């Protein structure tokens, strides 16, 4: 176990110690004196040099701890740690703070790491009154932080090889805190599944499967054949008449006579027009001749020299008029001849069309008579067809119903097989479920035993260093789970209800516990020890400060 022992203390400018004072400390040191003699100051000097605080850890207490009359404040401690001599100096001059270990400048973190781990650890051990001042939350966090975990393997060994192997196989050590809760949830799910599976088995019932039906399709096939044979026969006479009618309709538009060859009147009229134009031309010449009188040199008579030309032109005009009249007669006779030919042709065509129309009318009458007869026959056959179709539909519906009935039987058979399969699967699952339930119950029981052993070991370990103080971190619930339940009492009472003397005694037990848990012995400073009639034996350096009325400071 590591041990820190303060051998000498040099104080200067600290509280009531204005001048330098050297104090030697033994394994057991008693400091006595009246009030305000500097007893508590010795303990505060030790905490100040190690921590830079007062006895209760107040880091702002330096202004209270220094002597206002001194130019500087200095505390020097000579101490041994693991039998090695060290010198620690804390010095304050104005706003300058210095800390030296063996002539080497350091800081609070360095010295804490080297000798006492943390401020709370130092004060809990050194000052028995420090821990009782903590809030329940802080005291729980402090103790939880320093406590060694109970060796889980030792707890498992006490269960025996069978249960130990079961827990390890199910990864119990990975999370012992939630293992029970998780397994109870698994058990709940399995119990629910068990109820469900039993319900599946009980709820499945055998299906009544009827015998399949047979459909006789003989009548249906006969009706289908009869329907195929029910058709209206072709009427050859009607078809022939229709063909004849179509032929006559074509013939009536195709006249078998050639049109007569008519005289080309337009040619004759053109000749007549030419004669007229010729007449106009000569007439214009004739009318354009004026009298042209000359006197004959022989006879002396006046002669019109254009008379001869007029006579010639007059003869030509007479000839043209004669030809025109002849051409007019010729045209008139040609027109009459053409009209005669056209009339003869028209009469012949009309007679032809009339005869064909009579033939068409007679054939249409015959066709109408035959169509009426065929329509009546068709209606009769259609009635027969509809009757057959309805009978066929009725039988087909019967056939479909029987097919659906038989298909339903097949589905029922499949359902029956599925039900039997579900029952077998449910029974198998139920069997596996019960094995799992049995296994989980075994694991739950093993975990409960483990928690019980663990709590017992924790309680025994803590109890070995405590007397009247009772410390509990966890409690075992009725379900076997370890639940956080921090409690700390002294003779059954909460710390805030204790007297000053009882707080000191309780603090001493906690100091002893912390030292043994951490394997670290630090000095203990017991202030106001006059209120305690009996002090426990402690295997560490103890500095006791008592008030003795009227006595000067004495250190022995």
What keyword list fits this structure?
556 residues, alpha+beta, four-stranded mixed beta sheet, P-loop_NTPase
Order of helices and strands: EEEHHEEEEHHHHHHHHHEEHEEEHEEEE
Low-pLDDT stretches are: none
Helix tally equals: 13
Strand content: 15-25%
Broad structural category = alpha+beta
Brief digest:
The chain has 13 helices and 16 strands. With 556 residues, it is an alpha+beta fold.
Question: How would you explain this protein's 3D organization?
Answer:
This protein is an alpha+beta fold and 556 residues long. 58% of the residues lie in helices and 15% in strands. The protein contains 13 helices and 16 strands. Strands 1, 2, 4, 5, 6, 7 and 13 form a seven-stranded mixed sheet that branches. Strand 8 (293-295) and strand 9 form a beta hairpin. Helix 6 packs across helix 7 (161-169). The longest helix is centred in the last third of the chain and has 157 residues, at 307-463. The protein is elongated. The two termini are 27 Å apart.
